[in-house]
Every structure is written in structure tokens, then in C-alpha cells.
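Run log // design_07
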């Protein structure tokens, strides 16, 4: 073949090419994003409608239905629409057809929802329109607690200090805090005094709005000076609002302090967060799209000390449910298995071929093929994940075929007393077509993967690409680098193959092991030949036995479960608890405390790391848009359970045990488990 002759004439060209592959491959490994899964880029846009105080039924009828109908008229390529209506908040998720640009979809949705404001109830604010991504899942939880700070202060620090600085971390999205008490200026009314002064709550509201103003007044030019005019009637202190007049009754002025009290307080609490039984606040760090989980968590952990240095020392921030540990362990497991597979493959080649030089040639071609695949994946903006790594691990056993077959054929030609260059050319030419067809046959198996749709497309396409690119690179290297290395590395072994096995045996320990292995293999082959001869003589019995085996195997399908992806034991559980309809959030907290006590009785203390309760709905609809929580009101919530990383029993066993025991002891509550780890959350 011309390419083999070219490689033998210009060996340095292909040696430099291999070195360049190694360098670029190493750079690609260091720069490519690393995550558990490929980016599942299903185009989805969320619309968050907010109208405080309106019931879910009215939100659905008066706001959601009108908005959905308008979007189906003017927004292109909608696949389907989902919506959830809560008390005062509604989240509409618009799913688009594949290959739709989310930026265009956001522009179209924004333009139509702005025109609907006049058709919606008066006083409603324009909705928030955000891009939703299936891969945007919680990767780190930051629990805020303190022995001295109040819930109001914890929420304030999380909202205005920690969250705003974490927003600068590349690839991270940080919604508003869960739990705590949202800081708010509160006016506590005295109904008796209002009645005696013939006033209503509306009068108080009007007085506050009319006298708490900042109006633009421009500038005034006096002489050679220009002065900025300020018309600011907003009090500098909260206490000063108590002195605002409301109205004059019978010649006497009624002030706000006469019928109410203004204070720096907090809004009515609708969300409670408890960490191991203590109230606090919670910041959730989300992965933004195709960003790397490991990089985001690393940057967040690096910037946290600088943020906390400017906050009170009483504020404690605990990092919980770190998904980067799970991602790193999963990827490390795949890499470890791939290295073991490569080592076992090298040992098999060494035992069968007997030459450590030939084994070295094959073992060099394997990582170069994988590095070439990584380089191409990097150019295609793919990530390093368990799917691409799994594809490469799968390809390790296949990649040795091209180089091994070529080297073995070169050995055969050397045994025919040919010079090494002629043996290389003849050996490569004799197997050129069979190896090319074999490589294409393996690659063409993955062609149907391109036709997949939905989440399966984003999961398995990178796996197929990783295998195909590695196979094509392996074939190219077997035509170029392998002949070059054979010419220079096997020159000293030419006599071994030309003299024959009898004279060659005894040249070193590896050769003796090789011939001992061959003798055992020949014995196994003779036994197989005898078994094959017996099978041919008893064809009917063999066919019947095989049919019984196949039928028995097919019958196991009724006992084997079905799932989109295998279960992954991450040591985390996510339990949803729902109290009877109408339960107050304070009562729900008491119920959660009882459930938490039962969980601690079921799971040994040395295996339990932490328990995090998230009760009720968050204050912001943005949190609902980024969450897959099933919470619908103050009567339900979630309990996140983390087991110790070093030592814990099977998580599924604890899940089954808790499901049975909790239902038996709390018959009036509803329990179900949701996806807890990053794997199941992305796929669900």
C-alpha cells in the first residue's frame, strides 16, 4: 500500500505526528469540560407569572390559559406546553422542536407576553422569561445557619451578599435562597383603633404610598452655579414612618403610630429550611447548561472563603450534597476499568505473541487512537463524561485488532525468510482489505445512533462518535506508525522468527512463558476440537439443548426490570412528604420533625451524614422554574438524606425500609421518593 511505503520512507513524519497527537490529546483532556453526562440540550423556555394572593385555580383560568393560547398563535415550532399553577405563582414550560434556537424562542415569547398585560388582571407584573435546561440541576447545597443570627438575617446575607458574588462563578446559576425570612418593612395594624378612627387598611396604604416618594426635579441654575434639586419624602429611618399623617378627623390629625406600628420585619413565612433539626436558609448552586460540574464546584469552593471573610463570623455555611464527589467517582471508576482492560489486553497480547517489542507497539497504538478520538470530540465541543469514556473503554478491546493482526502477519512473513521491509509491505498489503472491511463493519453498527431522538440522542451520540473516531484512528495508525515501529523495533528479532520455534525457544523469560502458554492453549484447542466433533455427531441433541437455553433465557425477561438508565447508588435519598390538605406550615414543620426522628431510628447514626428539610414553597417563582420539586403548598416538602461517603449500606434497601415503615407509622401522610443524585435528576 502506498501509505505504508510512505511511512517507511518518511518515518520521522509519522513519529512527529504521533507526538503531536499525544500533546494535543493531553491538552484536550485538561481543557475539555468534565461531567457525568453529555449536555442534554432540549430547547425549553420557562415563563414565570406572578400575581400574589390569587388561588391556583384562578391563576390557571385567568392567566395561564390566556398566555398558553397566545403563545400557540405567534411562537413557532412548539412541541408541547406544560404548566403548574400555585398560590400566586404559575410556571409555564414551553418545549420546542429539536434544533430550535432558544434565543429566538425567548424573543418570540417575550414579545407576545408583553402584549397580554392589558388582557390579564389589573396590577399584574410582566412575567419573567428564562431558558430552562435539563442539565441545570443542583450540584451543591449551601446551608446557612448560626447560633446568634436570626432567620431574617440569614436570608438577607444569603440574598444580598453570598448569592450576588457566587453569580460571578462561570457556569453557575444561584436562585434566591430557600427558607429564612425575607426582610420586609411591615405595618402591624390595630383593628380596634382603625375602627374607632373610621379608617381602613386602604387608608394606611394610601398614606404610605403618597408620602414615601422620590420624585425627579431636575436642576436649578443660580448665578454661576447649577444645583441638583432633590424631592425626597422617603424617611431615612423606619421609625420615622410611624409619624406619617393619615388624615384629619374632627380637627385632630391621626398618625400611623396611632393606629399601627411600622417595623423592620419579615414577610409571612411560606418556606422553612431545617438542617439536622435547626432552622436556617439554603442556597442551591445549579449547573448552567454544558458547563463542567467539577469546574463549577471547584470555583465555588475557591471563592467562598473570600465571600465569608466580609461577613459576620457567626454566619456558618455548610456545603451539602456535593455532586462533584459523585461525578469524580463515576468518571474515576470508568477510567480505572479502562486501564484494567488495557492492561489485561496487553498481557494477552504478550502471552500470545511472545515479543515484548511487538506488545509495546500494540500498546502504543491504543492510547494514541483514544487520544485522537478525544481531540476530535474536543473540536466538536463535546465533553468528557461517562458515555464518551465508556465508549473508549468499550473500544480498547477492539482497537488492538488492527495492530495485532498486522504484526502477527508480519511475523508470518518473516518466518518465510523475507527481509524485514518486504515482510512489512507484504504483511500490510495482505490484510489491508480485510482489516478495512472489519473496521467499517464495526463503525457502521453505530450509524443508527444518529437517528435517535430526545434524551437518548444526546446520551448515545457522543458514545458512538468516541468509538468510531478511535476505530478510524486505529486503522490509520496501523497503516503508518505500526509499520514504522516494526521496522526499527523488531530488527533484532528477525532471526527469531526466521529460525523457527524450536531454535527460538529459550530466548529469555518472556519467550519461555509464551511457549508454555502456547502449549496450554494448544491443549485447550485440541479439547475444543474433540467437543466440536462430538457436537457434529450429535447435532439433534445440541440443537435441542441450545433451543432450551434460548427459551429459558427469554423467559427471564419477565423478571428483569426496565429502566431508562441503570440505578446508581450515590448514598443520597430525596423523600417527599405531603401532609393533609390545608395544613399550616408551622404544623408541617412539626410533622417533618417527627418523620426526621423516625428516619434517624431506621438509619444507623454512623452511616447517616445529614438531613435537610425544605418545607413549603419558596418566595420566588424563579426557584420553581429551575426546580423539579413536587411541592405545591405549605402542607408538603422534601427531606434530603445524605449517607456517609466512606461507609453506608445499600441506599435502595434503606429506601424500601423507609417507604414501608413511614407509611405504617404515619398513615395520614403521603410519601414518595424522587430523583436525588445528578444522574437521575438529569435523566428525569
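design_07 sequence
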Amino acid at each position: 500500500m502506498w501509505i505504508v511505503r510512505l511511512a517507511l520512507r518518511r518515518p520521522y513524519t509519522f513519529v512527529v505526528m504521533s507526538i503531536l497527537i499525544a500533546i494535543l490529546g493531553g491538552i484536550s483532556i485538561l481543557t475539555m469540560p468534565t461531567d457525568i453526562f453529555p449536555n442534554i440540550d432540549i430547547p425549553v423556555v420557562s415563563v414565570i407569572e406572578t400575581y400574589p394572593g390569587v388561588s391556583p385555580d384562578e391563576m390557571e383560568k385567568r392567566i395561564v390559559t390566556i398566555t398558553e393560547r397566545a403563545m400557540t398563535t405567534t411562537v413557532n415550532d412548539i412541541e408541547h406546553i406544560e404548566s403548574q399553577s400555585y398560590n400566586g405563582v404559575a410556571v409555564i414550560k414551553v418545549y420546542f422542536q429539536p434544533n430550535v434556537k432558544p434565543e429566538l424562542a425567548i424573543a418570540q415569547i417575550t414579545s407576545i407576553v408583553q402584549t397580554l398585560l392589558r388582557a390579564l388582571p389589573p396590577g399584574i407584573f410582566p412575567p419573567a422569561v428564562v431558558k430552562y435546561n435539563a442539565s441545570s440541576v443542583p450540584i451543591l447545597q449551601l446551608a446557612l445557619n448560626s447560633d446568634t443570627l436570626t432567620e431574617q438575617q440569614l436570608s438577607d446575607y444569603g440574598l444580598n451578599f453570598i448569592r450576588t458574588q457566587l453569580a460571578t462563578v462561570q457556569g453557575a446559576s444561584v436562585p434566591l435562597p430557600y427558607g429564612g425570612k425575607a426582610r420586609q418593612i411591615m405595618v402591624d395594624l390595630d383593628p380596634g383603633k382603625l375602627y374607632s378612627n373610621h379608617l381602613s387598611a386602604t387608608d394606611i396604604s394610601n398614606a404610605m404610598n403618597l408620602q414615601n416618594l422620590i420624585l425627579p426635579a431636575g436642576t436649578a441654575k443660580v448665578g454661576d452655579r447649577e444645583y441638583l434639586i432633590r424631592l425626597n419624602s422617603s424617611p431615612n429611618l423606619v421609625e420615622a414612618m410611624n409619624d406619617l399623617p393619615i388624615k384629619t378627623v374632627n380637627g385632630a390629625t391621626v398618625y400611623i403610630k396611632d393606629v399601627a406600628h411600622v417595623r423592620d420585619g419579615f414577610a409571612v413565612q411560606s418556606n422553612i429550611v431545617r438542617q439536622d433539626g435547626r432552622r436556617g436558609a439554603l442556597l442551591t448552586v445549579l449547573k448552567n447548561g454544558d458547563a463542567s460540574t467539577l469546574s463549577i464546584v471547584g470555583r465555588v469552593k475557591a471563592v467562598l472563603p473570600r465571600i465569608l471573610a466580609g461577613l459576620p463570623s457567626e454566619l456558618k455555611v455548610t456545603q451539602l450534597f456535593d455532586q462533584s464527589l459523585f461525578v469524580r467517582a463515576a468518571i474515576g471508576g470508568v477510567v480505572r476499568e479502562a486501564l484494567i482492560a488495557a492492561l489485561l489486553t496487553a498481557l494477552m497480547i504478550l502471552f500470545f505473541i511472545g515479543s515484548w517489542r511487538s506488545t509495546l507497539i500494540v500498546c502504543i497504538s491504543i492510547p494514541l487512537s483514544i487520544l485522537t478520538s478525544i481531540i476530535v470530540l474536543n473540536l466538536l465541543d463535546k465533553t468528557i463524561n461517562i458515555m464518551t469514556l465508556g465508549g473508549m473503554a468499550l473500544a480498547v478491546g477492539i482497537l488492538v485488532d488492527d495492530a495485532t493482526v498486522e504484526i502477527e502477519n508480519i511475523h508470518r512473513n518473516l518466518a518465510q525468510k523475507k527481509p524485514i521491509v518486504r515482510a512489512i509491505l507484504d504483511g500490510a498489503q495482505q490484510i489491508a482489505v480485510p482489516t478495512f472491511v472489519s473496521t467499517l463493519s464495526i463503525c457502521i453498527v453505530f450509524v443508527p445512533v444518529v437517528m435517535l431522538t430526545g434524551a437518548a440522542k444526546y446520551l448515545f451520540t457522543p458514545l458512538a462518535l468516541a468509538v468510531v473516531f478511535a476505530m478510524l484512528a486505529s486503522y490509520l495508525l496501523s497503516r503508518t506508525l505500526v509499520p514504522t515501529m516494526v521496522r526499527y523495533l523488531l530488527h533484532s528479532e528477525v532471526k527469531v522468527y526466521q529460525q523457527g520455534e524450536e531454535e527460538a525457544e529459550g530466548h529469555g523469560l518472556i519467550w519461555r512463558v509464551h511457549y508454555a502458554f502456547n502449549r496450554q492453549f494448544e491443549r485447550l484447542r485440541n479439547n475444543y476440537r474433540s467437543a466440536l466433533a462430538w457436537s457434529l455427531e450429535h447435532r439433534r441433541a445440541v440443537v435441542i439443548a441450545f433451543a432450551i437455553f434460548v427459551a429459558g433465557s427469554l423467559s427471564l425477561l419477565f423478571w428483569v426490570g426496565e429502566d431508562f438508565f441503570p440505578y446508581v447508588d450515590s448514598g443520597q435519598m430525596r423523600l417527599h412528604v405531603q401532609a393533609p390538605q390545608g395544613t399550616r406550615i408551622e404544623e408541617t414543620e412539626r410533622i417533618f420533625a417527627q418523620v426526621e426522628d423516625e428516619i434517624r431510628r431506621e438509619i444507623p447514626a454512623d452511616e447517616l451524614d445529614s438531613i435537610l428539610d425544605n418545607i413549603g414553597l419558596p418566595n420566588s417563582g424563579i426557584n420553581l422554574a429551575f426546580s423539579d420539586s413536587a411541592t405545591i403548598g405549605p402542607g408538603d416538602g422534601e427531606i434530603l438524606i445524605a449517607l456517609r461517603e466512606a461507609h453506608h449500606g445499600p441506599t435502595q434497601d434503606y429506601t424500601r425500609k423507609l417507604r414501608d415503615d413511614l407509611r405504617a407509622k404515619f398513615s395520614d401522610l403521603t410519601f414518595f421518593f424522587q430523583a436525588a443524585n445528578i444522574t437521575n435528576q438529569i435523566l428525569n
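The radius of gyration is 35 Å.
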